[in-house]
Amino acid sequence: MANEIISYLEMCSREGVSLQRGMNFGLGGNHSVILMSLRPNAPYQDALQDRGTVLIYEGHDEPRSSAVPDPKSVDQPERISSGGLTQNGLFHQAAMGSKQGQRLPERVRAYEKLRQGIWSYNGMFHLVDSWRQQSNGRHVFKFKLVAVEAEEDFTVPVEVDAPRRRIIPTEIKLEVWKRDRAKCVICGASDELHFDHIVPYSKGGTSLVAENIQILCARHNIEKRDQIQ
Ligand SMILES: [Zn+2]
């Protein structure tokens, strides 16, 4: 569920792999996973657009090696030396395919690093476009991902033009995390936590101010949702 607060180990156990890389195409054959960070010191320039409903995700660099001592000075690679596609290449191919109507958009789950050891599940996205652009004298890949409602059931086909969702900005999450002292505001539980919209987004509540976001445990999150519906 979007807006869960989880640890790195929980994330890996859910995805069934050790998430060493930031880009993981085609896990289990039905979705991909990206790790993102919007912190000022993040290694890549990820950004939110369209009032937080679109993520522009930057591709990844060559691994550092004796041949590539400074990965930030060379183009981000589409292929490895043997000719196969890199993660950039795999995501780019899928984005082009869906843009040209040859396939449905790839489903992508995004996890955001908030602080050391603390991650937030940013929910499901559709990969709809990608391109290369100049950045500090070299080419980088950019991927356009649209935040969509739910779509966690992989047996159901991708819904093209699914209702959009708005991502809670990082600084709001960090402010709420500190204000609520990393606990459910109702019972004080400190595990299975979520960022909850006090007035839901679907009822006009905003994601953009900390006053409308609080921390709830899984139980109180579900109880509240049942009351609203
Ligand atoms: Zn609770």
Question: Brief overview, please?
Answer:
The protein is of the alpha+beta class and 229 residues long.
Topology:
Layout lengths: L3 E3 L1 H8 L7 E5 L3 E6 L10 E3 L4 E5 L28 H13 L6 E10 L2 E18 L2 E10 L22 H10 L13 E5 L15 E5 H11 L1
Parallel strand pairs: 3-6
Antiparallel strand pairs: 1-7, 1-9, 2-3, 4-5, 5-8, 6-7, 7-8, 9-10
The structure holds zinc ion.
Zinc ion (ZN) binds next to strand 10 and helix 4.
Describe the structure.
The chain is α+β, with helices and mostly antiparallel strands. The protein folds into 2 domains: 4-167, SRA-YDG (PUA domain-like, Roll), CATH 2.30.280; 168-229, no CATH class. It contains 4 helices and 10 strands. The protein has helices spanning 8-15, 87-99, 170-179, 218-228; strands at 4-6, 23-27, 31-36, 47-49, 54-58, 106-115, 118-135, 138-147, 193-197, 213-217. Strands 1, 2, 3, 4, 5, 6, 7, 8, 9 and 10 form a 10-stranded mixed beta sheet that branches. A hairpin with a 2-residue loop joins strand 6 and strand 7 (118-135). The radius of gyration is 18 Å and the shape is globular. The mean pLDDT is 92. Bound molecules: zinc ion. The site of zinc ion (ZN) has 8 residues, from strand 10 and helix 4.
